[in-house]
Amino acid sequence: MKVLKSHIILLVFAFISVSIFAQKGYKIEKDTVTFRFDVRDYSKFTKEHTGQRLEFTDFDIENVAVSGEFNLWSREGWKMQKISEYIYELKKSISDFNDAFAWEFKYVINNAYWAEPSRKDGNVSKAIKDGHRLRGVYNLKMYTAYPTNQGNASFKLRGFKDAKKVILAGSFNKWDEHLFKMNKTPYGWELTLQMKPDVYQYRFIVDGKWMEDPHNPSKTPNEFNEYNSVLDIQEYTTFALVGFPNAKEVILAGSFNNWDEHNLKMEKTNEGWVYSLPLSGGKHHYKFIVDGKWMEDPDNPVREYDGEGHINSVYMVK
After folding, report:
1. How far apart are CA 61 and CA 108, in angstroms?
2. pLDDT at 143
3. What is the reported pTM?
4. Is 270 exposed, middle or buried (0-12, 13-18, 19+ CB in 10 A)?
């Protein structure tokens, strides 16, 4: 649950859980990508310009950097920190990446030697850099959803007990036809994902045949003259107005309730006034109405003009 409060926007979570999507070479935890290089995972290194391959024992590691499509294959820009005898790490915010879904990357040693991941590691392919083929690269995929039993969205397909495989595909994984395999249950198929607040479209693939969710009435037409099912993942947000102890009534109004002047009556507390409600992902404009007088949130400096020339406070759910 997110709380807007006193001088800064504070993020307070009603549910605390470990949200990690891990792959060989990196992991994604909440809004942080952690690149992890373990010397013990590699036996050979390749010199970039000559192609000479060396055993790990043939030279000393002075530095390690992350090099990939996201930083134009820089060999020095994203230097890693040595945290133990064998482990190097670098943490980057998801905001440091653009909206691309996947990037290829490798680890470069001493600014000149590429660490070679093994194909048995999985999630490894080949890439071209400056016209030269790199032997093996990791694929960094920025999912807006990932499987976990503690997730906030459960997808269920009743029946189809004779199906051999059911895949969940949607806008949250670029409609990948292989990634999210659903689990067979006594009632059909099921998969639970942790998803960021947003409005998503999805379909099921039953033994290669695409279909909408027959149990979800929310759907939208797609380009194949069929329908995609729609899911709106929301997150509880608490708006707080500090002070105003003498006010008789404070209303929360915003783009999320068509600026209704009566519906969202805030609750009086020792510190001011609060109101909680679930919001979809994205940008929301809002104001407070204190005893009939409209006002922006004095403790939120983020404001924008709307289409009618009014200034509103702004809150992003992401």
Report:
1. 10
2. 62
3. 0.57
4. exposed
